[in-house]
Amino acid sequence: MTRLRQAPVTVLALFLGALVALAAVPAPAQEPFPSRPVQIVVPLPPGGAADLHARPLAQAMERLLKQPVVVVNKPGAGSVLGTVAVANSRADGHTLLIAMPGFFINPPVDALFGRPPKFTIAQFTPIARLSADPLVLVVHPGRPWKTFAELLADAKRRPGGVTYGTAGAYSGLHFPMEILAVATGITLSHVPYSGAGPAVAALLGGHVDAMASGPGPVLSHVKTGGLRALATWGTSRLPALPDVPTLKELGVDVEYLLPVRIVARKETPPAALQVIRDAVRQAVGSPEFAGAMAKLGTAIAYLGADEDLALWEKETRLINQTLQRIGKIQ
Predict the structure, then answer these.
(1) Hey, is 246 helix, strand or coil?
(2) Cis (ω within 30 of 0) for the bond into 34?
(3) DSSP strand pairing (228-232 vs 300-304)
(4) Closest among 268, 287, 261 to 87, alpha carbons compared
(5) CB-CB contact of 99 with 124 (8 Å)
(6) Which residues, in sequence order, are bridge partners of residue 191?
(7) What is the mean predicted confidence (pLDDT) over 280-290?
(8) Which of 59, 152, 197, 238 has the fewest CB atoms within 10 Å around its CB?
(9) pTM
(10) Other CB atoms within 10 Å distance of the CB of residue 182
């Protein structure tokens, strides 16, 4: 009987077979974005400019993204706690941050005190700038000053006698008051709070005399007489407060804007970033967001990511210069 000899199975044949088998397995599908609810972290208490921008923005984005968009307030340490939470979150686009001036201020403040930075600007990438309002100098209506000149004269007579509230030491509401004090040669007493909302509440209650604020948190109180507006830090008068002069009109050559931004983790995938940026751009142009800003007396000043990134260095330079004036606060 003749034996049939079985052909040997070579290593090459096994290798080729394995390749064919692998090719037959479909590649895993890429997870769509967003695949779950999106969080917008506001690193400050409710009631301030950050919160008042985030909520109408989230409502408009939710319709566009077809996922819940949730605003989460994480205040603490002058916006540091919420910012650090986002810096340590997954870089997948599902956690975003409303960035106020403290976003640029806190890292150089750490450097001023010789502390390791709790976060760095390099950990983030811009999505958009939403607005950039000049601040408003408001005072309690029970105080005797009807004009900025009267406040200035009183502050010169009583160095340190006029108090002002802020959203915290080295916050975006602290800097303009110190810039104003340097420019006019007066000394004011600083009273820090945990955010713009608490600072406005303290001013309404008469616990402090004055503060610098974005229009949003104070406009309704100015309209009803709960607060008195004396001046703004803009280059032109605010449309919502046409009778309130700018400091430049009053002979004080200072200007200060309060930008409100939204940012994401630097390592966020480009495809997810594009979806977010498109959604924010459309949301800012929506009737609901425009209406909310109009009620606040805030002019939309949208800038896309590339345009806004070009301003980051300029704003960091201004903040560093102002920080040198203020120095260390114990």
Answers:
(1) strand
(2) yes
(3) unpaired
(4) 268
(5) yes
(6) 165
(7) 97
(8) 59
(9) 0.80
(10) 13
